[in-house]
Structures are given as C-alpha cells and as structure tokens.
Amino acid sequence: MQLEILTPEKKIFTGEVYGVQLPGLTGLFEVLDKHAPLVSALKEGRVKVLKDKQNTLAIVNIHGGFVEVLNNRATVLAEGADVIEE
C-alpha cells in the first residue's frame, strides 16, 4: 500500500508500507494493504506506520486531520505533524 502523510507546509512521509494505525475520532483503527475505500476524520494522536506485521517504520504525532483510502493508497492530510521516530 502506498502511504502519504501531508501537512499544509510539507510532506512528512511517503512510501510503500504494510499498513498504518490512525487515531480516529472514536478510537484507533488500522488500514492494511487492499483496504476498502474510506474517508475518516482524525483527532490529535499518534500515527504508526507499519513496514510489516511486527515492525514499526515511523511514528508521527498529528494535530488532527483526515485520511482517504482509495485504490490501495492512503493519504493522511494533517493540520500539523511532528515525526517522533523514524
């Protein structure tokens, strides 16, 4: 799955990943390879980028935003973000 994490100022992350864990308004959820189309609002919290089933590739702290999943591509549009770990 292709993942992009964007803010109004810059591109935070782009690359091929196994999945991503996101802070939805009602709790955490995970988007994996070949996920059904989805649009969701995100609250402030941590985004975990998963390179495979066991390993975390990066952790990004976002300040709210939205995610769109379509055609095996996830795009996170965040109001602001800080990379915690890469």
From TrEMBL:
It comes from the Bacteria. It is a peripheral membrane protein. Keywords: ATP synthesis, CF(1), Ion transport, Membrane, Transport. GO terms for cellular component: endomembrane system; proton-transporting ATP synthase complex. Residues 1-81 form the ATP synthase F1 complex delta/epsilon subunit N-terminal domain. It is found in: Endomembrane system. One of its GO terms (molecular function) is proton-transporting ATP synthase activity, rotational mechanism. InterPro entries: ATP_synth_F1_dsu/esu (IPR001469), ATP_synth_F1_dsu/esu_N (IPR020546), ATPsynth_dsu/esu_N (IPR036771). Belongs to the ATPase epsilon chain family. Produces ATP from ADP in the presence of a proton gradient across the membrane. F-type ATPases have 2 components, CF(1) - the catalytic core - and CF(0) - the membrane proton channel. CF(1) has five subunits: alpha(3), beta(3), gamma(1), delta(1), epsilon(1). CF(0) has three main subunits: a, b and c. This is ATP synthase F1 subcomplex epsilon subunit. It comes from Dinghuibacter silviterrae.
